[in-house]
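Pasting as-is:
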Amino acid sequence: MSFFKKFFTKEKEQDLDKGLEKTKTGFFDKLTKAVAGKSTVDVEVLDELESILIASDVGLDTTIKIIERIEERVKKDKYLNTSELNEIMRDEIVNLLEENNTQDAEDFSTPESVKPYVLLVVGVNGVGKTTTIGKLAYQFKQQGKKVVIGAGDTFRAAAVDQLKIWSERVGCDFYAKGMNTDPAAVAYETTDYAIKNNCDVAIIDTAGRLHTKINLMNELGKIKRSVGKRLPDAPHDVLLILDATTGQNAIEQAKQFTAATEVSCLALTKLDGTAKGGVAIGISDQFKIPIKYIGIGEAIDKLQVFNKRVFVESFFKK
């Protein structure tokens, strides 16, 4: 039994199963219709399966890889039974994702040799960035760590106010300079605050205007350099927040952000509110950047570390 499986409690497993319920219902309803009256996996079934995977927002490129792998299995066993299809898909998707050489997080711990651990959070408005920062701060606090949240989105008063509320709710430190101040200065000073106040973790928010704006991307680079001036090798991670309910648009945002800044990990939010949960499979396959966290509910503790195998097993669990 892996370290992760030992600590992936029954409650967390049930939360994940419930969070993927809408995705699974849509997927299996369509799959049941596709194989109705069929005893073997033939070309027609594979064509239907391709359409179902794309409709679940797995993405075209990843879907083609999955179909090609299943076709290879069909060639080996020409009388492959449709009842075996779920198990075969699960195995091939797990194998595909495990080949991307990204390490799954085992818990909410931070590197022992790094203090403060500086996490820069990026993403467009509306993806659940503020909420995810609050939930992360809570999880780090549960680990016994001293946390400071830096309000680097200085263009929206609501962003600063909401983060302050989250910091009070979590019971962690908060650093802000107010509206319309230099975000890079906020990032620098939050890092400075973390060092001087013996914080274990600094989570720094950034502006979430449209990802197509080149000035925003330039701004992210400036913020990153500013943090590095105060603490060499920081930020230690750049976390991109993506909204699962947007499906393929989340993949497009990931393309834009990864092209503009050195994103090192991802968080996928609102999985419980969508039938597009298959996007996690596509993102994990395409970007070779670890999905570190997934949001599966509104409550403060409904943020989980992402594990590829556990996710796929839940996806195919009826």
